[in-house]
Amino acid sequence: MSGEIALAVIGGTGVYRLAALQDVETHEVDTRFGAPSGPVRIGRLGERRVAFLARHGEGHSVPPHRINYRANLAALKQLGAARVLALNTVGGITERFGPRVLACPDQIIDYTWGRIPTICEEPGEEVLHVDFGDPYTPRLRGDVLAAAAAVGADVVDGGCYGATQGPRLETRAEIARMRRDGCDLVGMTGMPEAALARELGLDYACLAIVANWAAGCGDGLEITMPEVLANVEAASAALPELIGALAHG
Ligand code: HPA
Fold it and tell me: What is the pLDDT of residue 125?
């Protein structure tokens, strides 16, 4: 199957494939930034071509600070993608963002460090100061929310994603500070991915999947990986239809 890619999806923790993709082709892509986290799978959802890449690798072997965010996005762009839906597994900080909630945040605060934050750090390359006031592409956010409404999926409109370094989870004091800063969600992979997408000229929006209450929030219980994965699986039930509607929208 050929033709343009209607949508590229980057899967996060717990989302390693899109089972609904038909006639899947596998692309091992090399980029000027190196190799992406794994192969890009391109297949058909209805009448549209959709690309999928597992951010941490299909076996979840690449930790957040080691992900080659630049190569991942460049690979999707090289294959012809112009719109990227980032699925990010997150913890919920504020009341509206409890476990199993889907959210489409509209702001970011970046607490990560030591990651390559730009595509233009090579000598001689022009430095870009891209506008990032709205870190997610407003039009694509609108399309995500419209797709969710069309398939009857509840998605919270807005919220601030705080990107932390990981791979450990946060202390209660760190989350309390993030709450004071205005963060609603906490995850480890939202940055620099969003900024790199903007530099690369890709439309980019995040669909955050709340896996647990962040440290000291909600029930205040210890966070365990089985709980995280079970909540991601439950919250992901709406994803195939939502992604299908987004690809066709
Ligand atoms: N913190 C950071 N990242 C996460 C969390 C969390 O509580 N849950 C899932 N990803």
Answer: 83
Distance (Å, whole) CA 190 – CA 37: 15
To the question of pTM greater than 0.70 for the whole model, the response is: yes
Distances (CA, A) of 84 to 74, 92, 148, 223: 11, 23, 16, 29
The whole-angstrom separation of Cα 213 and Cα 97 is 8
| DSSP β-ladder status, 83-92 and 160-163 | unpaired
- 163 CB less than 6 Å from ligand 1? no
β-strand pairing of 185-187 with 83-92: antiparallel
Nearest Cα residue to 6 out of 161, 147, 151 = 147
Alpha carbon 140 to its chain centroid, in Å, reads 13
Find the helix packing angle between 138-151 and 239-248, rounded to 10°.
Answer: 120
Q: Which domain holds residue 225?
A: 5-248
Q: What three-state secondary structure class fits 148?
A: helix
CATH code of the domain covering residue 25: 3.40.50.1580
Helix (H) or strand (E) segment spanning residue 211: strand 203-213
On whether the CB atoms of residues 101 and 92 are closer than 8 A, the answer is yes
Token pair 């076996």 is found at: 59
Cα–Cα dist 100/98, whole Å: 6
Q: 100, 170, 188, 233: which to mutate for ligand 1, most atoms within 8 A of CB?
A: 188
The reply to whether ligand 1 has any atom less than 6 angstroms from the CB of 169 is yes
> How many structural domains does the chain have?
1
Task: With a cut of 60, say whether residue 141 has pLDDT above it.
Answer: yes
185 versus 61: which is more confidently predicted? 185
